[in-house]
Fold these 4 entries.
Entry 1:
Amino acid sequence: MDIATIVQILESTLRLATPLLFACLAGLFSERAGIVDIGLEGKLLIAAFFSAAIAYVSGSAWLGLLAGVAASVIFSLIHGVASITFRGNQLISGVAINFLASGMTVVIAQSWFHQGGRTPALTGDARFERLTLPFAEALRDVPLIGHVYSQILSGNSILVYIGLLCVPLSWWVLYRSRFGLRLRAVGENPAAVDTAGISVVRLRFWAIIIAGVLCGIGGAYLSTSLAAGFVREMSAGRGYIALAALIFAKWRPWQGLGAVLLFGALEAIANRWPNLDLGIITLPNQFMTALPYILTVVILAGFVGKAIPPRAGGEPYVKER
Amino acid sequence: MSSRNMPKWADVLLVPLISLLIAFALSALVILAIGEDPVRAMAIMIKGSLGSTYGWGYTLYYTTNFLLTGLAVAIAFQAKLFNIGGEGQATIGGLGVALVCLFIPWPNWWMAIIAAILASALFGALWAAIPAFLQAKRGSHIVITTIMFNFIAASVMNYLLSHVLRPQGAMDPATARFDNVLRLPRLHDILAPIGIDFSRSGPANVMLFVAIALCILGYVLMWRTRLGYEIRAFGQSEAATHYAGISSVKIIMIAMLISGALSGIMAVNSVMGGPQRLVMNAVEGAGFIGIAVALMGRSHPIGIMAPALLFGFLYQGGSELAIETTIPREMIVVIQALVIMFTGALDNMVRQPLEAFFLRRSGRG
């Protein structure tokens, strides 16, 4: 395997990890506040559709992004009304969100574009163009730095960089801001937060709105950067892989970045070599596809360090009277 | 889920019916929004699924699937376990059916169906066993692990169908067709001797009666046996059952094994009764519809029968809709999502005003 191949794999790792990263951070905010979110998949999908649709109609990827974020936030609010306001089962609400997105995207796409549930291909400004980072050209020939900076990091869509910046930002918000402290507290012991005179309901709604925004960017990235347009079911289980990454990272932001890069690398390798020949055995493509899920089960089983979710996760908060 | 503040009939019938009406009203709005006529859509659906024995043949075929997956989810729900893995368990159950049908030369269909039911139940139960064990022993959340196992099952099936079970020279990832001897009697064959002329092409078959029998058995198990009592008690209060000396590991394992086995048996209908070979995605989302069916039926083995028929109607009606109008087949996924949302997650939205209403009435009387 030569350097060019490695660079290629790492480059595609970064691109494939980005939608996972947004969804993983979205799950992080939601679950840290005690709202279990298996609706990440649905939010990615609905955002991917509305981003592509509006980007196509308006010719602007940025307007598309805005529409995708709005759609995703609306789905977040539905989840919030069901699981916070009406104290419904968060898992069931998440399942419903995923089906709603899966059905609605195709129904609306068919009605708007008549192309079998997809949007027309996006061109020009309807897609996010690739950015060349400063000095990337100058550093291109420097060994190692040139490979990493000019070839892997540079030349991606702006959303990739926004995603990477969201990691330290999320860390800072969760661990260094007052809002973050309260948010984490509400996921562990909402009664204590309530006693301190802070509204549990409001905090949790903020958390899921943040989750909606992040999922929205992730979905927009799928259809206006990674691909050129929406196709049905294009989220393809990424919301669930992000959920897996979140568990893998034990609900922490930096580790989340590590987990999505790992899962992104698995996808990149599976794309590059459909059947991976390791000398002794040949791993079929399907094994690589299943690996993130297998790893998550192993982690959940507690064989490689225990993954302990936020304590109040999944339980509606009932105010004492 | 039971409530002390309103009569039982309201709890069991009125709440799901109102939720269903809201879900249907919103679906009608979606149909209006995409420029179609909801009344005409409903008429096409009714005619296409219930208007002929041909339509009934498909409606009841889908109903059979949903009876089994709905029962599977319902029994796990009774133990407060949310088995989202019906899809994966049915996929692996299908593998059991295919192995039994392809590699053993059965002399007739009824011996084959018994073997296929046993094999699919075994395979489905085994696929549920790992998440169940991890939940019982290591506290891994069953919802997440069963979701993961759905994806792993899809990969396993993809691999087996494209590399191992595909006949030489065949292009599509599927097994060979089963021997014609194994063709299950369809409603046409069953009803013809008693003089009822039923359409030959509808795939509804003997598995319908197996599914109904299993629902009745499920009722007997849950409400007439000690084990059923223990499962329900565990679902109501884990702590209480612990003090009563009931092992939580045992209950979780048994409830999930039964649930997995029932999901697996669904594949006998969708593989042996349908295309008579194992194809990719033979389950077609029935595992997930089971969730909606169980929620509407209040997790009661008899209660799920009506919702299973309703979804059978929606499935067949949705196909007809896609043929006759511009409404795509995915419209039923939207309806399914709304039903899950309103009967499941937003249950309190309907329940709270109703409870208040009944409280006021009983206060006056």
Note: Residues 3-32 of chain A form the longest helix (30 residues).
Entry 2:
Amino acid sequence: MLRIENLVKSYQNGRELLYALNAVSLSIDDEEFVVILGPSGSGKSTLLNVISGLEQPDSGSVTYDDYEICGLNQKEMTLFRRDKTAFIFQAYYLLPFLTVESNIKMGADLKGNKNISDIIDALGLGGLEKRLPYELSGGQQQRVSIARALAKKPDFLFCDEPTGALDEETSKQILTFLKQLQKQLKFTIIMVTHNASIAQIATKVIKMTSGKIVEVTSNAHPRDVNEITW
Amino acid sequence: MKFKKQYPLVLVVVCAVFICTLLVFYLQSIDSIKKVLAHQNQQDFTLTLHDEGIITDLSNKYSFSYDPMTYKVIYDEKNVYRIMQNTRHIDIPLYSEGVAPQKTTEIAIDKNFSQDNKLALGDPVTIGNTTYSISGIFTLPDAISPLVADNGVGYKPTTQALILCSEEVYSNWDEQEKTSYAGRFLESVSEEQKQTNLEEMLMDSQVKSVMSKEDNPQILSALSAKEKMFKISLISALSFFGLTVLVLLITIVIQSITEKKSTMGVLKALGYARIQIAKRYFLIGPFVLIGAAVGYLVSYVVSPLFINSMNATFLVPNVTQNFDPVQFILFTTVPALFFSVMAFVIAIFSLRKPPLEMIRNGTSVKLNFLVKRIRITNPFKKAVFKAIVLNNILLVFLALLTGFMASANLQIAFSLQAMSDKVSSLTFKGSEYKSNVRFIEAKEMKFLDAETPYFSEDCKIEFPDGGVLNNGQFMALSSSLSRFKLYSIQKQETIDISKQEGIVVNDWMRKKYDLSVGDTVKIYVNNVVYQLPITAIEQSVYGEVVYSNMDVAIHTGLLEKEEYNGVFTKDNVEFDSKRHLFVSKFEDVLYASSQQKGTYFALSFLFIIIGLALSILTISIVMKIIISSNRKYLAMMKAFGYTNLECNRIVLSGFRIIAYIGFIFGTLYAIVVTKILFDLLAKASTIAIPMTPDSKAIALSLVIFAVSYEVIMLLYRKSMNAVSLQEVMMK
């Protein structure tokens, strides 16, 4: 379980102090699919960064099953990320000079996972292993980035606008893969998006504005990916 | 263009400053030396005669002008002074301060004496009982090691001075006047004719001795040697610096274009023409222009430091600085234009690809054949290493260059030091005598044999390849008494001179004249030719002396006379001006050796500075480019849980291996190429610098390189540790 209490994160903008997170608190259960919605500048990406351990808050706490990560030193934080988390980004951030297989091994090698064929098959990447990223479509590249993330068997998958650069059909494919694999591998998804339609497939929706959570909605019966449109 | 993003261009400025400083310094030094040579109206040869009355006839016969070099030598309790009149037309003194003496109370002193005794213009100098005021400080062509004393004592600038004075002051001294002549061939005499005339003069019975400028170590070592050294330095600077800076700049240009590939792709997709997009890369020109201009101007601030230290070390006339507008324009505009055009062409070439491929920042099509290799399954870390290395051939080259330059320069520096030590030790080993004597009058052989471990005779030596040494020396060593040791170059042990049935030549002669054991050499003494085979080669790397034992010399006819006037070894003898022409002592050899070691130390220091500076600069650029071009992927790896140490190892370690491979190449270069270069140098000069693999030099170079490399790596690791995902995502 992930528990967040009174998170504050501010940035200096000239003489002005801007609060990206202003006393944010929430809790997320294991294997939930959480979507964080909000306009640009609402603090949703900062929240994702802080709870994933990429950034330290000014104050507050982030606790994973009673393990407090705020205040960890750099080495401890690295080991935490290695053990617990994985990321998917809108820009994929695949290493362009490595093949699909080597990119996936970036995640797998961290956990000593020798068998990546299952994840390759699960994401429909069979036959593309020896290709380089520029030889793939956007959807295929995002699937590789998902495979890379899941190959390290994370407990929490953080997704920053994973479908932001994709068309509707491809986006749905990606979301379908994510949902299926979540069910299969049992991890928690925390996704930041602009796209309100995606909220319909989540089990929890958090709406943010000006660094504050303005609404938290639990969805006992999330819709299937194919039932939504945008 | 934001300046802080243009660190590569800042490096361009640094490189340009560095190379321009050196170039300007070297070129100005060479230019100054040429001006000094032109001013001095240097002699072509020095002449001594049996009868001074025939000088006019000789000058007409051999077409030369002359200046009588009359002088008097004065010894006081502390110093030795060679006093000359200030009336020279050949070998004109160059006044670095003040003017020639006009009054009877004035003298001018040489620069070395003034420096070593901290004497300035107007200071008093007491010679005998008379005190003079210094009106000027000068240098003559034989500035490094002029002849001052005439008793065989080696040159010491602290206690020996050249003095120029008016005719009246000169005539006031009662010491015996001695005369030689400085000769200069007339303008109409061709180079070929000069050689012929010199050879004919050598054979002329009226001539006691003639020594061409090229054979005169005093003159040759002063300016010509410095000019040669500058040229060697210039060539090495140009080859090392020029190549490095060129590769660095090309790398920087390609890197900055590669980083902008996506943006260029967007512009192309929007409909901009290739030329429109590529022309912005002409902007690199002004950066290079500024860099070169700053470099050129900085050289005027920096080079006096070099010049002062070089002048102090090598005791050569002042190198002056002149602003040369043509040189300035050439140094700044030509590189600026070159790099502008080069950047434009590379940009145009990069823009040939389809916009989509450029936007996706796809792998270069040209490198596909390399990339195919790493499609073979590899663990992640190995794959990253291979991919970074194979996709950055220029960086690999630079990393190789890093090790190469450090290794080559450091080892050359240490080898020069080792060589200097070796030459000194050889000199000491070969000089187990306390003093050498040359008598004024010839002595009977039977009288000399008992106490003469060796003696020598001036001679001309002709080698099988046609090469001639006009001022050679033939030295006969006593088999039983000689303490003049020779060491075999092949066997690394003492040559038993008694067993030699021919002559022994040295290593410099072997290299210069392509000699080997068994070759026959012609030795001319007093117009008689003697042919002797070479039976051994000794280690000395300079010296125009051949050796035999007494028996061979006598058997050949070289000693078939009852009287002999050569150089003899005689212990515990004090100079007597009535009996001895000179007495040179072993302590003089020690002093000359220490002077020579100082020169090599300065040269070695220069090589060390060049090697380390280039190596550090290059590896810094390599690290900077690797980190900046892999920033987002490093951040990604960190986000996934790779530690800083792992990131460092994965991304940077590969270049360490390459740098050390470069070090191995540098070692081979230092051994092989410098050997070839120094062999060529041996043919063009009077010294053969021995280049042999020196394990201590290699080990020391490796330690220095490893420490420098790791320190730079440590600094860049900190920069790499600072890479964060937020920063990359913000961009």
Note: Residues 72 and 177 of chain B are 5 Å apart (CA to CA).
Entry 3:
Amino acid sequence: MIRLEDISLSYGEKVIVENLSFHIPRQSKACLYGPSGGGKTSLLKTLLGFVIPEKGNFFVDGDKAEETSILKIRQKISWLPQNVNLPVHSAEELLLEYFPVQHKDVAIDFLEQFGLCSEFLQKPFTEMSGGQKQRVLLSSILSLQKPILLLDEPTSALDDESVEKIMDTIFNLENITMLSTSHNPRWIERCNVHIRIGE
Amino acid sequence: MKDTMDISYFSILISYSALVIPVLIFLYYKIRLIKSMLLSVLRMTVQLFFMALYLEYIFKWNNAWVNSAWVLIMVVVSAVSSIRHSNLKLKYFLLPILFSGFLSLLLTDAFFLGVVIKLEYLFETQYFVPISGMILGNILKYNIIGLTEYYSSIGRDQDLYYFLLVHNHPKKARVPFIRSAFKKAISPYIATISVIGLISLPGMMTGQILGGTSPVIAIKYQVLIVIGIFIACILNLYLSILFTNRSVFDAYGSIRKGIMRKEKKNK
């Protein structure tokens, strides 16, 4: 589903990833792990076409990533960055204003699986804890029902109970191929593809 | 109404002596602005005297081509000067800003001079040159504030932009940044409009009254020019964002590297 061939990334003179190759089969749950600053987030952004590799190629669902195919590739991917300052007050506003195909009922299903009630869709982000906001955002992007899910440190703002609920839901999503970055040992353990990045 | 009193060249020289106040304050606090202030004043004086000479002929000829060329030169000079004073690179911004400035000025002039004032001859120097100049002087200032905010905020909130871009069309992903640009650029002008006549007397109205026009007519023109500037500002910023989007974003939807100049560090 996702294949990287000899990818090298660098910022200016500094090489952060060198000659990396890996393959993530369809419906796998993969994790990039390793020290901070090793290039995990940059690799996720590479798959979206936001960081251009110095050398190497990558393929998503058979399509080689290049200028002409990047929009097609993005249409298959949902992505949740680690920190994002949203220009909306609630998840409902996010769905209505910025997501072209809204599946509000699907978002509510995921909210309930994550242990939150449907009212959280309308609740202002400012009145939520970090963990609640993370679960609401995850429900929102999962409602888009795209086949590939990219998650950057999905459990960093969560308490243990919330981590369990999110893991139970995400690792049981059979039709989704997931690539995440994480420092959480339990999350890494649940993944079936492990890719170490950095020294 | 009395005729406007002329000011002698000697009196103008005396007015320069008041500059000793900022010079003393700058010297006391060691603010390195004296040279640039004196150079700016000198430039302004030379430019205005040349303009006065040139305007004498422009008024005498009252020719559509000459007047349009004059306005076009003003558009080019203002665009280059405002981009240079901002953090943006001429290479990416000059053509789109020129084109949007010219188009928004053309539309605003056509509406206000042709439809509102109902000039028989649209290029009448007495109206066309000063009104275009007033509009132009204002729109470029607000345009640069808006454009700088637009591109800086996308850079600042890069993850938000990318997040929206992954889940929607680029046009939609840029909406929050366009909002932010309009707010930052236009809010000061809206605040200025609300206090006109209360704590400030606008330059155009003051000039007309000094020139012997009745205050009622001067106010009518002032209302017209304020609305004209406002409409032109909005149009210009909108068109600039639209046109610069084409040259500034790459095929992946990211901002090209190096669209902004490196800021010089002030010691």
Note: The CA atoms of residues 191 and 198 of chain A lie 19 Å apart.
Entry 4:
Amino acid sequence: MKMNIITLLTASIRNKPGRNLATIFCFAFIAANIFFLQLLFSGTVLNVDQGISRMGADHIIVGAQYTAHLRIGENPPENTMALVKVEPSSARIKADVMGVVGKIPGVSNVSPQLYVSTLDLPAVSPEPVDLFGIDPATDFTIQPWLQTPPDHPFGPGEVLVGSELSGKVGSQIDIQGHLYTIAGRLDPTKSSVDYTVFLNMDDAYAIASAKGIVPPSAPQISPGDVNAVLVRIAQGADSGMVKSRIQQPFSYSYVKVIQRHFSLDPASQEIKGLPGLLGVISTFVVVAAFPLIALIAAMVAHERQREIGLLRSMGAKRKAIFLLVMSESLVLATIGSIIGVCVSLVAFLLLNTMGLLQTTFQVSFRTPALYEIVATSCPALIVVIAIGSISSLWPAYWSSRMNPYDAIRGEGK
Amino acid sequence: MIEIIGVTKSFSTDCSEVRAVDDVHFTVNRGEFVLILGRSGSGKSTLLGMLSGLTRPTAGTILLNGMDISELSDDAISELRAKEIGFVFQLSGLILTINALENVMLPTLFCPDYPGSDSRAADLLTKVGMSERACAYPSTLSSGEMKRVAIARALVNAPSLLIADEPTGDLDEATEQEIMELFRQLNREGTTIMMVTHNSDLIRYATHTYRMTQGNLIKSDGALSPRLTLEPRTNVNDKVSS
């Protein structure tokens, strides 16, 4: 059995529980403040990000004869604000439009949608159900509405269902004798999306060719047909300009471009000021707490001078004393920061669940996922550990340079 | 083993310079039990501090096993202390939050070439009569028991020199006698011991005795240490110890 530094460290920390608890509290206070502010910020950003991602496309390219057929009771302005899904229509265009549009400057994403049919599926919904084909690889308007992110890519034989359709995720849905597995359920949109089954494109073409799916009166669907190409423009691009560029290569008798008539800029402007505010508050907390922690560290070193002298008399080198004092501070800082982060997280979750945060800040917060919490906690941990290290530098240096003879004789003084 | 040549230690105060140790010369040979008597403030602890490299002399040379420790770097002196010197102080200096056995093992942390076996610390506690209290914390030990643990701790790295600074200053007469018997036993087993004390009753335990007054080392006949190596007085108490 040999003595090790951990035993000595533990002993030192246990030596003055009151003093060390006070130090840990200081570290926890800083960590809790920084982490809570980070959580508020990231919660807001996540909420806004989700909102933006669910706003759908900036433009929809449809056939020239396209006319939206809204369901009874739907509110037209709301449905045209967020271009998530094209409305059922028999006006189709060819998917190769995507290849042309995708190369247009200012276009960020393009994705096709195919309206297959509207069917009565009493086992699934009392209302008629729309069948749509989407391309899971390029889709950016439907999948952001998923209640929970899928554990695998939405593939062949699988469907996504709107919020008003019955059937659990993982169970099968029967579409007039064709069985599909429900891979995901969407959040309510208060639009026709809530009554829609989304298949991948190949399955959509396959079911479209089956008997009794597409009404005989409607034009038959051929592979390569799509009802719309949804377009997201690049950040900073001028929406009107991009719309003109999209229309330019095509005849007005072939396609038309529908533009969303609102901008996301006001929302993004609101959160632009948050990082600055966060920085100011965090800096204030650090500046206020740093001298206190440095003072405690200096007092601790002074109080321990006899003990340090004894260790020196046993042969401890200056470097060992320096590392011992630093390690002790780092251990306290780490414990404090972890406690601060945990307390802060519990407070955030409680206040958010009770709705107090939303009431206070007039902003809604989305609870971050575990990995986001871990990532968000890193700055708080790093800052607190850095404060612990910096505030202990001078006491550690002073302790290591102390004359051991004077330190030992300082006993009782 | 130890040769001190013209060692002086002076401290500056606001209006004057105080010589705590003034031009001291003497030699300690291996296996001796040297006692330095003196009143508080006579400079005896300062002398021990310089012998162990805890403080550096203002002037003079200190040779330990032929090595001039006043020329060594701080790290080298620390390493020398870890390997060659064991300390026992007036107050035991035990760390309160680790038990007796862990206190004894503490110096091994700073001795990379720890010479002992895994059980050496426990064996030393047995040697000082503390084996049954190995797991006891210092706050539960008496002054005498703490001193015994401190002695075991001083011996754990098998030092060639044991330095004791007023080791019985805080003990009652009976416990003082027990501790001094322990020192004598260690000395008989080959440990070189240098002890300072203000208690002249303890000279009977030593093989050689010096007296320190106002920074000067004085022979028992009262002569100041000259600028040459003092031959220590062979103590009549050798007879007592034998």
Note: The mean pLDDT of chain A is 81.
